Amino acid sequence: MKNTVKVERAIKDITQQELAAAVGVSRQTINSIEAGGYVPSAVLVLKIARYFGKPVESVFELDEND
Amino acid sequence: MKTRNFLLPYVYKKAGMWMFLPFAALCLCLLFDVKLPSIMVPWIAIGDDIFYAGEANLLTEVGMMGLLVSLSFIALSREKDEDEMTAYIRMQSFVWSLWFTSAILAFGILFIMGADFLYFALAALYLYYLVYILKFNLTMRAVRREGR
Q1: What is the pTM of this model?
Q2: Are B74 and B19 contained in the same domain?
Q3: The domain that contains A34 carries what CATH number?
Q4: Helix (H, G, I), strand (E, B) or coil at B83
């Protein structure tokens, strides 16, 4: 699954730590999501999208392997 | 959404790590027949003719029980920063260690015979815990380093 979390974070000018605290996970989890190493749960996907005030599909997108 | 994960608080992991060294040392001494004083105590257990009522070496019982408790504390405690990715790594490590331990057990069943097999089977009881703890903590360490 591809995502634009890093871009959204840059637009909002917040750190990984701030996003992690806002959605209730560790900074390492945000880092792994951005790097594509971890596919978040539906709950976390919804929380991240809500935090950025965007629809889920504009932050997370299925890739050809999903 | 809150899901129960049946894990102990993080402080148990620290306690388990402190407990592990002395109990592991004691169990290694017992496994390799190091001369230790035997403290025989009356014991009732399941055994010959359903109930075993006889004596047991207190050091053996305490050593093996202590090792089991310390490994359980380390393996089954929350991390400081436990979240859904930790749970995912935990599950992957469980599966990985089950495969690894199964392969070791299969090797032992096929190629270790006689009294040595009993020692092997005894040690294998704890192998699953040890492999899981190693795999989980090494993966967590790699994830934490990656995020620095």
Answers
A1: 0.88
A2: yes
A3: 1.10.260.40
A4: coil
Q: Per the domain annotation, does A61 fall within a domain? A: no
CA–CA gap between residue A41 and residue A47 (Å, rounded): 10
Question: A16 CB near a chain B CB, below 8 Å?
Answer: yes
As a whole number of angstroms, the distance between CA B64 and CA B81 comes to 31
**Chain A residue with the nearest C-alpha to that of B143:** A28
Name the residue range of residue A10's domain.
2-56
Residues B109-133 have pLDDT tens digits of 999 999 889 888 888 889 999 999 9
Nearest by CB: A44 against B84, B86, B147: B84
Counting the structural domains of chain A, the total is 1
Question: Model confidence over A25-43: pLDDT tens digits?
Answer: 999 999 999 999 999 999 9
Both B23 and B87 in one domain: the answer is no
**Domain region containing B103:** 80-148
- Where helices occur in chain A by DSSP H, the ranges are 5-12, 16-23, 27-35, 42-52, 56-59
Q: What is the ipTM score, two decimals?
A: 0.89
Task: Choose the mutation target among B82, B85, B89, B92 for the interface with A, i.e. most A CBs under 10 Å.
Answer: B85
